[in-house]
């Protein structure tokens, strides 16, 4: 919403994946990629991995069909200004924000499921008694189907900072695209240079988020391991944002890939330890090895509220990072 002083925003994060949230119920503020990139810039803007426009589903062409089940739509932009279909950390922070702002009734915080529209369709969220949120992430699938499940990979990934030998990767669709790569150990995970994007072959048509994982099942590094819970450590290079401290859809992809690689009898619940904390992934139902549905649980923290200075906003030139973007990944 715009006041005489400028446009209001909030800042929040989920496991240190951070977002600027901008209320725009009527859908009359549609920032171009350069404006989003300027707001998300770490040194000259507010700084964030992504921007979430809080818009009523009915106010947006992409949300109109979901308006009956989801009053609010998460219009998600990466920090380079490109659109994404879905954000697993962002949707929890968005839910907390909608609740705090009174955009949804207080009962939305009492443990019941309610809907949020996204470009990846309707998602349901629920506030846990401890204040974390669970998002029903809906369907996932292996991009390469049953053949990729049998082969356990469908891509080769060059990871900067390692030995130059491409590693096998597995492509998953969580509404947005992911490629998961297993590394040999935490030393290798630490050595990866994610200031540069991993190179995925064949190149996914709309780009991809790349998760580097080290499965830890059976190894009690955190001192709290449980026999019925799988554990994986992850770093991520996000499409449109670079390395981030966490990625919720990526955590789901990492858990699903690792569960497939672990084979028969692997747990349904996974702890995914990211630089920003821990996410819990619950595989709800799998029809075969190549598709199913999944839930994600984690924290949602609102940090600050502010107002964009109108003079600053008016003065923003297009930053070089925004040049040549293809804003809508049509799938
Ligand atoms: N950090 C998010 C994912 C954000 C979108 C992603 N970079 C993409 O382009 O698909 C998450 O928590 O899922």
From TrEMBL:
SUPFAM superfamilies given in the database record: Diaminopimelate epimerase-like
Superkingdom in the source lineage: Bacteria
Catalysis performed (reactions): (2S,6S)-2,6-diaminopimelate = meso-2,6-diaminopimelate
UniProt keyword Isomerase, yes or no: yes
Keywords carried by this UniProt record: Amino-acid biosynthesis, Cytoplasm, Isomerase, Lysine biosynthesis
Pathway noted in the entry: Amino-acid biosynthesis; L-lysine biosynthesis via DAP pathway; DL-2,6-diaminopimelate from LL-2,6-diaminopimelate: step 1/1
Name the record gives this protein: Diaminopimelate epimerase
Organism encoding this protein: Kineococcus glutinatus
Lineage: Bacteria, Bacillati, Actinomycetota, Actinomycetes, Kineosporiales
Gene behind the chain: dapF
């Amino acid at each position: 919403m715009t006041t005489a002083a400028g446009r209001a925003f909030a800042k929040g994060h989920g496991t240190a994946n951070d977002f600027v949230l901008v209320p725009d119920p009527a859908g009359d503020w549609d920032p171009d990629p350069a404006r989003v990139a300027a707001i998300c810039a770490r040194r000259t803007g507010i700084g964030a991995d992504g921007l979430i426009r809080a818009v009523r589903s009915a106010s947006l062409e992409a949300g109109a069909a979901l308006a009956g089940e989801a009053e609010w739509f998460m219009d998600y932009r990466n920090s380079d200004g490109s659109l994404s279909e879905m954000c697993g950390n962002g949707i929890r922070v968005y839910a907390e924000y909608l609740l705090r702002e009174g955009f949804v009734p207080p009962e939305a915080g009492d443990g019941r499921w309610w809907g949020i529209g996204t470009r990846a369709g309707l998602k349901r969220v629920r506030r846990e008694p401890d204040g974390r949120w669970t998002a029903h992430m809906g369907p996932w699938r292996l991009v390469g189907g049953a053949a990729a499940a049998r082969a356990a990979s469908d891509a080769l990934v060059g990871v900067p900072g390692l030995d130059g030998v491409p590693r096998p990767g597995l492509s998953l669709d969580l509404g947005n695209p992911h490629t998961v790569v297993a590394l040999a150990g935490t030393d290798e995970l630490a050595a990866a240079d994610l200031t540069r994007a991993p190179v995925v072959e064949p190149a996914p048509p709309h780009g991809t988020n790349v998760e580097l994982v080290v499965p830890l099942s059976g190894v009690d590094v955190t001192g709290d391991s449980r026999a019925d819970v799988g554990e994986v450590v992850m770093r991520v290079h996000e499409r449109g944002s670079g390395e981030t401290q966490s990625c919720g859809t990526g955590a789901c992809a990492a858990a699903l890939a690792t569960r497939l690689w672990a084979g028969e009898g692997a747990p349904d619940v996974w702890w995914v330890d990211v630089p920003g904390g821990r996410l819990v992934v619950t595989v709800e139902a799998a029809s075969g090895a190549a598709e199913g549905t999944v839930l994600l649980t984690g924290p949602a923290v609102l940090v600050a509220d502010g107002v964009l200075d109108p003079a600053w906003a008016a003065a923003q030139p297009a930053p070089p990072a925004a040049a040549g973007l293809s804003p809508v990944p049509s799938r």
